[in-house]
Amino acid sequence: MTPERWDRIQDLFHHAADLPVADREAFLQRECGDDPSLVPEVAALLAADARDSTPVDRPVAAVAQELLGPSPLDLSAHRFGPYRVAGILGEGGMGVVYLGVRDDLDTKVAIKILRDAWLSPARRERFASEQRLLAQLSHPAIAALHDAGTLADGTPWFVMEYVEGAPLTDYCRTHQSPLGDRLRLFRSVCDAVAHAHRHAIVHRDLKPSNVLVTTDRRVKLLDFGIAKQLEAFDDAAAVTRTGLRMMTPAYAAPEQFRGAGIGLYTDIYSLGVLLYELLAGRLPFDLTDKNAAEAAALVAAGDAPKPSVVAWLRALPGDRLASRSAWADLDVLCQKAMHPDPDRRYSSVDALIRDIDHFLDGEPLEARPDALAYRLTKFASRNLRAVTIGAVGLAAAIVLVAFYTVRLAAARDRAVAEAARAERIQGFTMRLFEGGDEAAGPADSLRVVTLLDRGLRDARSLEADPAAQSELYLTLGSIQQKLGNLERADTLLTAAVAKRRALLGSEHPDVAAALVELGSLQSARADFPAAAATAREAIAIAEKSLPPTHPTRAKALAVLGQVFELRGTYDSAITTLDQAVALYGNDSTSAEFVITLGELANTHFYAGHYAVADSLFDRILVMSKLLYGDRHPNVGDDLINLGAVQFEQGNFTGAERYYREGLSILQGFYGDVNPETASAQTMLSRALVNLERYDEAAELLKKTLGVYEKVYGPVHPRVASAVNEVGRIALRRNRYDEARAAFQRMTAIYREVYHDKHYQIGVALSNLSGVYQAQKQFPEAIRLMREVLRRYAEVLEPDHQLVGIANIRLGRNLLGAGQHAEAEKASLLGYQILIKQASPPKSWLDNARTDLAADYQALGRPNDAKRFEAELAAKAP
Amino acid sequence: MTHPDPDREAVDRMFSLAYEELRRLAGAVRRGEAGVTLSPTALVNEAWLKLAASPPAEFHSPLHFKRVAARAMRQVLIEAARRRTAEKRGGPEAALVTFDDALDLAPASGGDLLELDSALEALARLSPRQAALVEYRFFGGFDIPECAAILEVSEATLTRDWRSARAWLAVELERSRNAS
After folding, report:
1. Residue A104 designated active-site
2. What ipTM does the predicted assembly reach?
3. Could you give the CA distance from residue A458 to residue A221 in angstroms, rounded to a whole number?
């Protein structure tokens, strides 16, 4: 037949089909006069047309069912290596998964076979590819490949670890896992994915059903069925060739929808969706009833609601996963991982893991929008002391760590580890850290955390060179300590000590040097017994193995002295620090010596030996100028200390002079908008208050408040503390409304920052009560102080100094209200608590004495009254 | 108009997907699952949604995709039919016996489909558009309006095309069955 003939036949067919059946024969005979052979052909078509059912009328599904529908293969007789088939676990598009048992060991495995392997080479290739990729991976959180082969008929199979568990999201839902658990499980997933990525393998189908959690809470990543190995010369990031199997739209990255390049970043996106689901309880985008184009557009737009918002709306109030401030970070984590633009996602799964760790450790995220305020806030809330070390230290740390990273690389490559060199470098880096770099601002300071992490990884790789490794742990530990990461510093320094002990024996001077660092850290962590023990051990080793003039001996003594100082046992502190200072002897211009001398001066200051402190600070000032130059911030600090000595002695004019001098140096170094500068301004304002120059003081405080707000944001403990000063001045000036507003703001900040559970909220309320007390509104003041005590009882030891002060405040208000019996109880309790303190605050004790004397007089107990009057007259401490 | 032959590579790539979808569908029918979508159109739409999620870039449009999908389904089924016919004859692959093999090998399946395939080849020589129409409608599960969109002709034309093609195929298949 020709197309022309077929056209003619069709014409005839359609015409005839429109006619009544009876007329068709005649019609055909008439029309086909030139070619009668057409008639039976058209007639056959008409007959077929009349049939209800022809081969093409069956639905394709029925055809498919007939051809492809049979049950899974019965493989009970087959053996796969040492395993026999014990049942069917599941059927997928690719193949069937059987449960395998190894009789001799009673272990279970999963046996995967490719069904209908004959269908296409592409399917066989894909199956082989999964097997090949799995063979490269060896990770506790990735189901492992055990064995592989082919059946007699060519059906390929492989045996892998059998995983029994629940999909990640189901697991967390049914166990109502708290946030920390969820993040740790998710982190394990990331770990597994990162392992695959290190082998240049992209999973491409990360979703809860491929991430199982076993009953012993371990994570297993499954199904590398559409995983892809990036080619060696691929642009590691971009692979356009896409697998045959569809991935799951709900977890697909925008580039997967677009069919654009697939890379490691594609997995990062899916991980982001997974995290989102874990946090929010649902998927970021609802793709049900969406066609492909709509789904692609939705995902590409990338504006899923923040997980916090979703979770907040879904959860019951008592059932929240995280606090509001934690949610802010979690939102950022998700958004960064799920960014529609691959370039703006986490650059690696490792980076994502680091931010999860930062979150779990309460550190700033790397992903945070780079607002300085955020980072400083986060940093300062974790460790105020670290911030006071200052922006300079942090900025320098970047230089240091960058330098140090380079050094690590060199150490790795060349295994350079001579002790002298290491020490030289350590000295150099530490000086850098402490000295500061005037040109560098604090802007990028917190990147240092990241750099340190990198340094740590590098250090870990130095297993073969324990001497160098311990040196690096020591350096890193000291830096972490200066940054306020005391936990990490502890780990590192403990490791450094252990490594040196193992390498050099317990009596080696290098062990003593490491112990000195560890002791100093333990003292910073307020673990005084441990710090004292560590320092004593260091002293003992140093005395045996080192000459008296060796700096390690002095340093060890200095640590012990500092422990005494912080414990408040000033006599022992002074004795010990005196010894340390004496050991430095001739070497009396070193930075270490100045630091030790500083500790000694502080101790005398705290002990109230103002004259000694004054002369020591004077000496330190001279040495600082020699060491660092006239305008160095250390010089500024020394001047502030000298001012503080004058202040405590009541010489406010002298204090003001020192403060102003110190302030100008700090201002020149740090600039106006800097917490260091602001902190010195606060000191100055206190001196001005005592000089009753309230306007100047208030003016200054307004400036410092502005600085804190700018640096830390409006809701921050440092801001609260500045607001407190403002309130105190207002109270002094009898500006009650202003004072009340300030203390109320202070309360509100602490409430928000500390989630209503912190003694600082009590302090704020206590100061607020002072306003009512000054206005003689005793009932309100009493109400507030009772609340304060209730709050303290929740978070403080019953004999805490603040509890004592609060009772004394309560007592004074009760006295004001004429409730002498209750007032006596409160004041006496407060007095008893304070008198037991290592250094009782005298002004509060005197308040208690005054009030108690009045109470006892009113209660008709003159003898008791006399006792406290006598203490007052004797100027008892 | 010319016969819109989907490019070879795209079909190859679609092949496995089509197989999986057909396999899934077949399994669902066999298990008698409730709520299984039996409409081939829905099946292909679903496949499109998923495939579009990892689209070989050459699928410019849903219409292009449908052409490729239908061709791929045809190939999968024809391959399966060939295989099944070989098994029936006791070829070397018959070593693995399925649980309900004997019951499942209804006489209608494998052979008929292979014959339909060759009849379609013959029809393509007479009228490429009609062969394509049958491919889309029978293998791809598309309805007339969808086919009209793919082939860019009116629905009325396709209704006529379908009617004569359907009759012609029935005649052809009967003829080849009587011949064998």
Report:
1. no
2. 0.77
3. 27
